[in-house]
Structure formats: structure tokens, C-alpha cells
Amino acid sequence: PRSLPVAVSPVLAGAALGFARSGHIDLVAALLVLAAALLMQVVTNLQNDVGYTVRGGEASGTRIGLPRATANGWLSVPTVRGAIVGAVALTMLLGLPLVLHSGLPVLLLGLASIVAALGYMGGRWPIAYTPLGELTVFVFFGLAAVCGSYFVFAGSVSPIIWMAAGAVGAHAAAVLAVNNYRDAEHDARTGRRTFAASF
For the range 167-171, what are the long-range contacts, defined as Cβ-Cβ under 8 Å and sequence gap of 24 or more? Predict the structure, then answer.
């Protein structure tokens, strides 16, 4: 739950900028965008939890961050993977009206967001095991989320929106950078080459 504001803030920024431009906001679209953003954060968190456990990331027992549900046996790996599938399906269902409303750019952004959320700690080369985590967060929780939200409300994106997106993305990347710095020693021992562990 502590990570959810990182998903909310870009939607709030996009909605506020959309309101500033037009003087009104489509409340249904805003709620759908917010729900989809929150679900993408949930998918990322669940994938992070299960992926970290499956790769033996808790092996040394010296990680400082919040406890992992699968590593502690509170939830099974198949249960969490089932929740991931369910959350992705719900995201796609909620995103369908947004795609019908705003077109192909929203579809492409939604699919890219799902791939990034699953790829953060999933697949053969997870993003979380590279120095590219902060960059990925900057792109998806800043540029993509703010510009995508605004696009749903306004149908276009201007330079000021990109600036706002960069500011929100920098904050989200900073949150990850602090977390990775906190666990840099542990991550280096377990093979995670985050930016903090690498540099």
C-alpha cells in the first residue's frame, strides 16, 4: 500500500492539467484511469514479491525492506501468480472503455505498461536486476502515466505536459532509488545489479 501514491500522483497531475485546460473533467474516465494505474502498481508489486522469492532474493536474510508475502509463506507462489493474472485481466477490462474513448495511443500505452509491470521482476532478464529500474519508473510512472492521463482528458499532449510528466517521473524514480540504495549491499550479494548496487 505504501507504493500506491506513486501510481495516484501522475493521474492527479494529468487530471488537474486537463481540468486547467478545459474547465471540466470526465469523472468516469478519470476513475477508470485511476483504477488502471493502481492496478498496474498492484501487478508490479505482486510480480516483485513472487519474482524475488522465486529467484532466491531472500536467501541471505539481510534485506531491510518490507517483508515479502511469498518469502514468508503468507501466500503461495501460485496464489500470487493467479492474482497477477486476475489484476491484468481486470486492468484490460477497465481499459477497454478508455481505448474506445481515446483510441490506439491508449491501447499501446496500456499494453506497454502491462509488459513493463510484468517485466520488472519477471522473465529471463528482469528490469529489477539491472541498473534500468529508475529509468523504467521515470518513463512509466512519469512520462507515460501523466501524458497518458492527460491525453484521455484532452486528446493531445503539449510541452508543458511533458515537463509535468518529467517532474512526477523524477519523484517516482527517486523513491525507487532510495529503496535500492537502502538494499544495495543485500542486492549485490543476491545478484541484483540495481543502479545503487552497480555504482
Answer: 167/142, 168/9, 168/10, 168/13, 168/141, 168/142, 169/10, 169/137, 169/138, 169/139, 169/141, 169/142, 169/143, 169/145, 170/138, 170/142, 171/6, 171/9, 171/142
